[in-house]
Design brief:
The complex is a heterodimer of chains A (245) and B (154). Chain A has 245 residues and is an alpha+beta fold. Chain A has eight helices and nine strands. In chain A, the strands form four sheets. In chain A, strands 8-1-9 form a three-stranded mixed sheet. Chain B is mainly α and 154 residues long. Chains A and B meet through helix 6 of A and helix 2 of B.
């Protein structure tokens, strides 16, 4: 019941935000104007950030998004692939009966009802009101319950002492981490590093935007092509959606 | 046997008298690096920052992580940007060195901080990174210079 109330409130606010920008600045790109936020203002649930990935455009063997992510967050490996931190992985799926293969980037799916948030004993794993699922490393005790709970295997544990971190990703030994949807960029009105790289290299397989805003590119694309969830049976209402699955 | 004990007793007694005086003389008051440049001031008066810097940083921390408020006035990164600089030899003190801005006082007062388990202990401009773009650029430069020396026959 309460979920329904929240949803309608969210929709109302999203519409209100869009309507506001129309009257203030006609002709200005709608979704950009709607998401602009001053630095000293808190994020609101009027937006819900999401990503849409076109698996038909995602080339097998291409790792541009992964490389951009690693660079953005200074994720360096220790030659231990099984435990090295990874925010995005490239996954190849093969349908046995037809032999059809497809390749896609898999990262934190930023679920609406995130299992990692449910199981966290300290509240370190949390969902921001705008739908981005994060780890507050200040409170993370490194128990790794969230890693067990995540159906997408999206989280990593830091086993080594880390130095010279970026401003974007403070990260240290003994805490869990995962894709932050480049929250540091999004708060400054930017787009995630992976999406930027994919677009810059002209693959155009990834779209980022506000799912709540019906006028955003991502919403329009999803309306037209659909946006499937991986493991939709879990009914997590993921923020990261795929087309061509 | 008895003499041994007696000697040990005297040595220990002597040490107990000497030690406090010695350690007091050996613990210099921490020196704090003042940011250079005219009119450069901290975000709060020195007295206020000395006592309450942790409250400002803690407040900012929760606001940033949970609410996405990214003002820079009280961010840890800004503290580091102003207060951590290389010394004359070009070396930047690590967060667990006595010379590091934060650690100089924290060691003096025996207060352990965990900030730098996750955060960089120096300004970003002093951190060298191997990026894919840099590597490609270097490769390109190499190829170009090789072509120049070969007289354009590459």
């Amino acid at each position: 019941m309460s979920e329904q109330v929240n949803d309608s409130r969210r929709n109302f606010l999203a519409k209100a935000a869009v309507a506001g920008t129309v009257t203030i600045a006609p002709g200005v790109l709608l979704h950009t104007a709607a998401i602009a936020k001053p630095d000293d203002e808190a994020v609101t649930n009027a937006t819900r950030w999401g990503m849409l990935i076109d698996t038909d455009k995602c080339a097998k063997g291409c790792t541009d998004c992964v490389d951009a992510c690693n660079e953005e967050h200074a994720l360096t490996g220790f030659d231990r692939p099984e435990t090295d931190a990874q925010y995005i992985r490239k996954v190849t799926l093969k349908e046995k009966s037809t032999g059809h293969e497809l390749s896609l980037p898999l990262m934190c799916q930023h679920c609406e009802t995130a299992p990692c948030v449910d199981v966290c004993p300290t509240g370190a794993s949390f969902k921001r009101v705008d739908g981005i699922v994060l780890v507050d490393k200040h409170i993370c005790i490194g128990c790794r319950y969230c890693m067990m709970a995540c159906p997408y295997k999206a989280r990593s544990f830091i086993h080594e002492v880390i130095e010279n971190q970026t401003l974007a990703a403070p990260r240290g030994k003994g805490t869990v981490e995962s894709c932050t949807m480049c929250v540091h960029r999004v708060d400054k009105d930017g787009i995630p590093a992976c999406v930027e790289a994919c677009t810059e290299e002209e693959h155009d397989a990834m779209i980022f935007g506000d799912i709540n805003d019906p006028q955003s590119n991502i919403s329009k694309s999803m309306k037209k092509h659909g946006g499937k969830q991986i493991r939709a049976d879990l009914r997590l209402n993921t923020g990261v959606r795929y087309q061509g699955l | 046997m008895n003499q041994r004990f007696l000697r040990l007793f005297f040595i220990l007694g002597g040490l107990m008298i000497l030690l406090p005086a010695k350690s007091m003389a050996d613990t210099p008051f921490p020196t704090i690096r003042e940011p250079e440049g005219e009119g450069v001031k901290c975000v709060q008066p020195e007295e206020e920052m000395r006592r309450n810097h942790m409250d400002y940083i803690l407040h900012q921390r929760d606001k940033t992580v949970h609410e996405g408020i990214r003002t820079e006035t009280y961010s840890l990164a800004k503290c580091i940007d102003c207060h951590v600089e290389p010394d004359e030899s070009g070396k930047i003190a690590k967060h667990d060195d006595k010379e590091h801005f934060c650690n100089s006082c924290h060691e003096y007062t025996s207060v352990q901080i965990d900030c730098f388990e996750c955060h960089a202990d120096r300004p970003q401009k002093y951190i060298k990174r191997d990026s894919k773009k840099n590597a490609l650029q270097q490769q390109l430069n190499k190829t170009l210079s090789a072509r120049d020396t070969d007289g354009g026959n590459l």
